[in-house]
Amino acid sequence: MNNLSLGPGSPKPFHAYSRxxxxxxxxxxxxxxxxxxxxxxxxxxxxxxxxxxxYFYKLHPLAVFISSFILGTSILIIVSMFESxxxxxxxxxxxxxxxxxxxxxxxxxxxxMVAGHSIYTSSNCGKFDNEDxxxxxxxxxxxxxxxxxVAHIKEGVEIAAQxxxxxxxxxxxxxxxxxxxxxxxxSYWAVAEANRxxxxxxxxxxxxxxxxxxxxxxENLLFSICRFRELTGSYPQNISVVSYDFKKERFSVxxxxxxxxxxxxxxxxxxxxxxxxxxxxxxxxxxxxxxxxVDPYGCTGSLRDKRLKxxxxxxxxxxxxxxPELKGLFSYCGPRLYPGILPWGQLQSQPHAVH
Length: 355
What we know:
- The chain is α/β, with parallel strands linked by helices.
- About 40% of the residues lie in helices and about 10% in strands.
- It folds into two domains: about 50 residues; about 240 residues, 3-Layer(aba) Sandwich (Rossmann fold), CATH 3.40.50.620.
- It is built from ten helices and nine strands.
- The strands form three sheets. A five-stranded parallel sheet has the order 7-6-3-8-9, sandwiched between helices. A two-stranded antiparallel sheet has the order 1-2.
- It comes from Platanthera zijinensis.
């Protein structure tokens, strides 16, 4: 037979059979098998494992129950341990990731807190003793009232000047709508700055900052402790509070007890009210003190309402993000003292700086 060479125009060769597989026994074509996907293989494997487990369960039901119980219990224990330790692990990881100067005042260990009582609104920085320079509530409008604010500021500066390890904080938020978005704390800091820190600028100014969210005396103390932690990376070993002398029991007994800070490491420095306002101030203080006695955290009733009124601009309170160890204390509300663990409960008592 001659082999003919077909050219480009020749017809395509004829295939007697299609490309499928031909079964000689049946005389039929078999469709080509599609390759199995990974998903179908995985599903087939899962079904196989499930069938084996089911078969084993029929033969040994007690063994399967015990194994399942042990596995479930182990998972619960691991999850609970992870959840309880996660905040600590997160905190430790954050600590490791911080650079060395993350806490600008980490060498300080004592807190001096000056509680704010008003907002300076004058554009003239030289009228500190003038009542018209301050935003005063009706119960504050007495001759000489402005001078008492300056006395608080000066007292705080002098206390901090005698303790090189002290952080001076002026505390008080934007509590008066009529004063605009100005805080009590910034007002006090500005007055100290304008007065050149009463001759102590070189030794106090770089250790004096503000806490600008407190709305009452309890928050003055609690928020300042948290602010101290934000700035130093630790909690104060000793606390000194500056306010009116008639508020000594409120701060030294009620508020100090509410945060359970050791009495031997807590000092109060009081300055007098004006003679004309003393009687009214004492009467008002007795009422507020009685309210804190039944509501030590100021979270219900009239004390809570007062806080809401002293937040006219709805400022976001950042705490306790800067002091995570106090999260439970910040969220606690009740007539009894907070029962949780507090950082200063672990501190050893140290002598307070001599003033």
